Every structure is written in structure tokens, then in C-alpha cells.
């Protein structure tokens, strides 16, 4: 294999968002270090570096105008925080009051949206950085010394970020679309494993894995949509933006078709065990998954995409195998063969959609509604309403804000009890470790401690090997870049890198060795406070809200089914209402999967209903698969005698889903209706289909598959409600009686 040339290697690196992000940070840190070294003012490095880091942590994807506005807001928040810290630092009680108020308010900003969450979080970080700078400066340089240096570093990175966004407008869109198609490829390959031509495989485990992977696909879809929308706004899209928009819509369609199901897999495996039809389906899905991965690489590297002929030949082989089974004329296969025929048609259309990605500019714009829903607040009033709605003890954002506020206050009190010098690392560690969920906090706690120990060891080795301050300054820049390159994916390495950066920077002014013990002790104390807070301060146990998340998933599926059936009446059109219902259903499914993942990381006492939750997740995702199968084939149906019956059966399924959702949400019982749903499933199975056309047969088949899930969903949902009620009663019984 010919080794890659240097230009090819650089091109591949340039195509990855982590490299580009790290390159911006490198330019900012290296220029600050070079300027300070040139003027022999290494005492300015620490606050300037901290300003750069805080501003980089506040960065979100946007066009240059949006990023400029965000930077103005960020710098304004930074300025207020830095000046307030400097003014209140000599007055501990006033400082504590200001920290409590600002922590709560800035955390609640996260209710508005991701941009404001990032700005609020970074502002808290900069406030603590200011305390560290003030503590190290010991009053030298006057009132404006630390705030001015922090703001200078933040402003420099902000300027660099805005310039970068103006020069490389579409690069983030390419990277997010590439990530989307890469995870879609993984989803298709995993979906193909359901067609394993082997009896007795654990389909439930594979469905569960598929539901969890679907959450990643949904997250990638949302990230790509937001990136495109930020460059689209209210204006007509340019040529490149229009091309990326079409690729996004293709990905949406591929996702719907990839997530669809037309069949009970175990019945297919039993009926066609001696045929190669299952293998043909698996192979075709695998080839289409590989095509998605090649498309991801083509988008990332800006290369032409060729879908190839291999999948086309595999599809022809599947059709030939299906025709062979039809010719055998076995009546017991009739229903299953119709499902396989629908699957074959779906895979053929999926293949065609992937092929159209080679030249998306030729897609007919008249057949596509290009509008996107802007989920960001449109006014100050709407932003305020979002925060107001979260100001309740049951809201996750409010609980996290209270928890983080009390944890920060406890850290501030602890630093005065233990040692005032270097003590603000306690508060900083608490801020970094205390996450919204128990599982994330526990993971960060372990990784933060291990990363700090690793960073101290690496720092000690660097001090011993390289006594030159210039060499140490170069390593400090490298460590800063390594922190931003790994902080999201390898948090322990990122923590080690930022620890090395701090040691090397402080050593520039002669006290690097003095930080080793305080850094370790403060990390242990701060991490311990964060771990204790997530256990005792308004803990947000996922099991306590699992029924509400499950209810949201079923309600979203019900609305999705309504929109699908409207399309069967009017004809297929990917309008905003349909796409919104589809996206909300998948978002709700991803939220349920995330809730289950978080619950499984919690202590055993709080996940006694894990088995029921996993079972419900599997059933809910299977329901979404059947809905997607119905949505993948939506076309206007010709008039038929069964139309009224289909409408009646559809409303029965919708009402059943709404009823189960209401029961899970505590607005009704889950005991009634089980018999009716069983009767509905049996009625759909027994409907005569011989005189119906393929479209009506497919609708009846999919409705029958959905109806078969209603009774299990109600039964498992009832178990979740009973378990939650029992936990609440036990908790109430543990409380002391009022005097």
C-alpha cells in the first residue's frame, strides 16, 4: 500500500473538526506566548491564557455574524464577571453571595439554548480564573490588571474565531454532514445484523443496541440541521448551502427508511431458514452502510461520490431470490412475502436516494419543502418564558442549578477552612466535575482525579528533563492544544493536559513546584464535593422521571402516525409539518434511550426498574420502526372499500397510544383498554387482504404490527408506574412524621 503523501495527510487533518478547533487554539495560545516571551513579560501569560481558554469553551457553531454577536455577549458577560470578582474578592461574604447568585442565574441560562448554556458555563469558569489570577497576583498591578489581561486573551480568541468563521464558512457544515453519514452507515450495518440467517439469536439485545445507536443518529441530524440553519437564516440559500441542505434532506429520508421495519424478524428466520433471502437483505444493508461511510468521507474531503454498482447487483440478487420464493406458491408465506416485498422496495428506494447524493444539485426543488424550524428564541420575551418554565423543582435545569450553586458555595467555604492559598482550584474542580446527571458526574469525578495525577506526573517529568523555560513554554502551548483536542472524547487525557499547562505556566514565574500538592489536594476535595452534591442535593434520578419520558415518546409517535396518514390521503410530500413530527418522534426516542443510559449508571437502589425500562425502550423503538416503515411508503391511496376500516383502525391505534401515554404521565389509569387492544390486534390480523391493492395491504400490515405492540406497551408501562409509585411511598415512609 502506497504511503500517503504529506499534502494528503494535511488534507485529511484539515477535514476533521477536532484538528481545526485545535489549530485555532494553537494559533491563539502560541501568539500569546510568543508576545509575552518577546517582551519578557511571562507574568502575563497565565491570565491571558485563561482568557483564551474561557472564550474557546464558550464557542458554538454559527456563521460569522452570529458568532460576532455571540462574542459580543460573551465578552460583556466576561467583563462583568471579572470586574465583580475583582471588586468582591476582599469581602468573603459579599463574594459568596455574588457567587451563589451568578452561579444559579448563569446555569439557568441553559434553558434558553445551547449557545447561552455555553456562554453561562464559560462565564463561571472565567470568574474562577479571575480569582486564581487575583490570588496569584497578591494585589500587584492595580484593580484592572487581571480583568484586562483576561479580557485581552478572550477578545483575541474571539476575534480569531469570527475571522475563521468568515473565511471558512461551510467547513463546519461539511464536518457535521460527514459525521451524520458516518453514523448512518454504522446504523445500516447494525440494522443488517437483525437479518442474521440464524435461528435463536438475541433479537431483543440487538434491537436495544439499535435504539441506543439511533440516539447518536438523531443527535447528528440535529447538529447538521442547526449548522445549516445558522448559515441559511431567513435568506434564500446560496449554491453551496442549497447543496448541503439537499444532502441533509437525503440523510433524513435515508434515516427514515433505515429505521423502518415491515416484518417480525423471528418469523422471517423460521419461514425462510432454507432460503438465502435473509442473507441477501443483510448483505444489501451492509453495502448501503458502506456507501454512507464513503459518502461521509467524500463530503469531509470534498471529493466526488460514486455509489458504485455493487449494491445495485446485490439488490438485483435480492429481487431474484424473492421471485424464486413467490414462484413456489406456498400460501403460508403470502403475508411474509408481502412484507419482504415492501422491504425490497424500501431498500431499492434507499439505494436510489444514496445514488442521488452523487449529484444533489439535480434534485427537483419543486418537490421539496426546504423550510426548517428555528428552535432558538425569537425574542427576549420567549427567552424569558423558557427560563420561567424551568423555574420549578421538577425541572432538570432548575435542579442542576440549585445543586451546582450549593456545591460551589460549599467549595468556597472549604477553601477557607483548608488553606486560603491556591484554594480556588477546589471551586474550579467542583464546577468541572458537577454534571447534570449522576452517571456523568461519577465518570468525570474518576477521570478528573486520574487525569490530575497523570498530569502531575507528566509535569514533574518535564520539569526534570527540560529546565529551559522556553522549552517549557512550548510544551505549555502543546498541552493547551491537547486539552481542547481531547476534552470531549477523552476527558482524563484532557484533564492531564490542562494540569500540565497550569504547572508549566506557573513555573514561568518561579512557583511551579509549589502547585503539585495543592493541585492534587484541591482536586480531591472539589471532586468529593461534586460527588456528594449529586447524591444529596435535589438528585435527578432518571428512574423517577422515566415514566414521563416514556409518555413523551408514545405521544410523539402518536402525532407522527397522524401526519403519516395525512400523507396517505394527500400524497407524499416532505413538508415541514411531516418532517417536524418525524423529528420529534425520533428526538423523543433518543431522549428515552439517553434516560435509560443515565439510569443504568446510577446506584442499584435507584434502578430497580431497569429491566422494565429496557423492555419499554425496545418496544417503543420497535413501534417507531413500524411507523417509519409506514412513512417510507406513503403515497396517495386510491379509493377502496377498506378505506373507512383503515381510518377507524388508525384512530383506534392513535387513541390507544394517547391513552397509554396519559397513563404513564399520571393522567389516567393503565389497567383499562388492554382487552380492547388485544382485540384490535387480532382484528387487524384477520382482515381479508386478497381484494386490496399493495398500498392498502401495506397499511393494514403495518397497523397490525403496531397494534400487536399496544398490549405489551401497556403492560410494561403499568409496571413502570407501579415501581415509581412504590419508590415514592417508601421515600415518604422514611420521612419523620410531623409533630
UniProtKB/TrEMBL annotation:
Instruction: Give the keywords, sorted.
Output: Cell membrane, Membrane, Transmembrane, Transmembrane helix
UniProt domain Integral membrane bound transporter: residue ranges: 415-530
The compartments listed are:
Cell membrane
Does the UniProt entry include the keyword Metal-binding? no
Ranges where the Integral membrane protein YccS N-terminal domain occurs: 73-354
UniProt topology in membrane: Multi-pass membrane protein
Q: Which residues cross the membrane?
A: 21-38, 44-61, 68-87, 93-112, 119-136, 148-169, 397-417, 423-440, 491-510, 516-538
Which stretch is the leader sequence? Answer: none
Asked if the Swiss-Prot or TrEMBL record annotates the protein with the keyword Cell membrane, the reply is yes
Q: Which domain of life is it from?
A: Bacteria
* InterPro entries named in the record: Integral_membrane_YccS (IPR010019), Integral_membrane_YCCS_YHJK (IPR010020), Memb_transporter_dom (IPR049453), YccS_N (IPR032692)
Mainly resides where?
membrane
Which portions of the sequence form the region Disordered? 356-376
- Which NCBIfam families does the record cross-reference, listed alphabetically? YCCS, YCCS_YHFK
Name the protein family: Belongs to the YccS/YhfK family.
PANTHER family the UniProt entry points to: INNER MEMBRANE PROTEIN YCCS, P-HYDROXYBENZOIC ACID EFFLUX PUMP SUBUNIT-RELATED
From the Swiss-Prot or TrEMBL record, give the protein name.
Answer: YccS family putative transporter
Q: Which organism is it from?
A: Pigmentiphaga daeguensis
